[in-house]
Write a structure and sequence with these properties.
Strand order of the largest sheet: 3-4-5
Order of helices and strands: EHHEHHEEHE
Oligomer: single chain
Mean pLDDT: 90
Radius of gyration: 18 Å
Structural class: alpha+beta
Largest sheet: 3 strands, mixed
Number of helices: 5
Low-confidence stretches: none
Distance between the termini: 23 Å
């Protein structure tokens, strides 16, 4: 991917690169009412050659089967930037933005929120938190895609 301007977010744009089956098109229209779609041109083209990439990329009706019965946050991570499941680890949520929205993502709830990136103030708070919790020896940088963070922070 050369730039983020090569992002696809609609079925109309996607169909310029990928021929969809009738079922794929129907599922796409249904699912994007609940969860958005985003792909790079590269992954769209790759999905023509790989069934695995196609499954990861294209919305499937299975995503929204019984979704109203499931908790929005199944892992109870909350909306903060630090997630703790184990006493010796911390997961840092840096952004909710990804160039490709993988259909299996466990943080889909964040796709519906306005785009956010960790800012300098939050980084300082996280640094203080880590210093105050010396039992933490593993820090996992996650998101979204942390490699898409602005370089000026």
């Amino acid at each position: 991917m050369k730039t983020l301007s090569e992002i696809i977010e609609s079925i109309k744009e996607l169909k310029k690169y990928v021929k969809l089956t009738e079922k794929e098109e129907k599922d796409f229209q249904k699912v994007v009412k609940v969860y958005p779609f985003r792909s790079s041109v590269y992954y769209a083209l790759l999905s023509k050659k790989s069934k695995a990439v196609r499954k990861m990329l294209l919305p499937s009706a299975e995503e929204i089967e019984n979704f109203q019965e499931l908790p929005e946050d199944p892992f109870n991570e909350g909306s903060g930037r630090i997630v703790r499941r184990y006493p010796d680890r911390a997961l840092i949520i840096t952004t909710n933005f990804c160039a490709v929205l993988c259909r299996f993502c466990m943080r889909k709830r964040n796709w519906k929120r306005p785009k956010f990136f960790l800012n300098e103030e939050e980084i300082l708070k996280i640094e203080s938190f880590l210093k105050e919790n010396p039992k933490i020896h593993d820090v996992i940088i996650s998101g979204g895609d942390p490699l898409l963070l602005p370089t000026d922070i």
